[in-house]
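U., I forgot to send this yesterday:
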Amino acid sequence: MYFDWTYVFFVLPTLLLAIWAQFNVKSTYNRYDAQVNSARMTGFGAARLVLERHGVSGVSVRCEDGDALINYFDPRTNEIVLSRKVYEGSSVSAVGIAAHEVGHALQYSENYMPMKLRSAIIPVTQIGSNLAFPLVLIGLLFSFYSLAYAGLILFGTVVVFQLVTLPVEYNASHRALETLRSAGLSPEDLGGVSSVLRAASLTYLAALAVSVSNMARMITIVNRRKK
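Result:
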């Protein structure tokens, strides 16, 4: 039986980290979803507050049914989409998540460079994520190592995307916390918001770790087979 030590050494630890990060973000969200914020502010109210405090207009905030953790800013339509639980909820989790998504709208309105870079490389990243593994596999099967290295380069765009995502997400969380602090939320609420956003940020860090470990594994396999 073949034992793939590269998977155990490179990928498995980061995969376990990613699983833990997903569990942690859900448990942290649930914990502070049970805590109503002191201002009785809804997620929608928090989103509008952050937009108004920063003088940003033309951004709509709409509700969408689905998973409570599926919330995002869409720069194509210039709208913030919040799950119903976040949009209507007045929990600490709801206001923190809503304010974070508005942070992305602020980045877009201010031409925040890391966000512009991330948006620019998305098409290349999509190609890289779809073609990288097939190219590496075909290159190894037919000993066509130039093709394998082309696959590695394409997968490198995925790593770059994950890397650029980190400052974008951390900056959005920082903007959210600072605005909610000025809005008069209690220190206890702000501590909860910080915990929720920090847990969410760890999922992006874990995603980067998984991408880097997969990249290292593929480089190791290709170089070993080429010898």
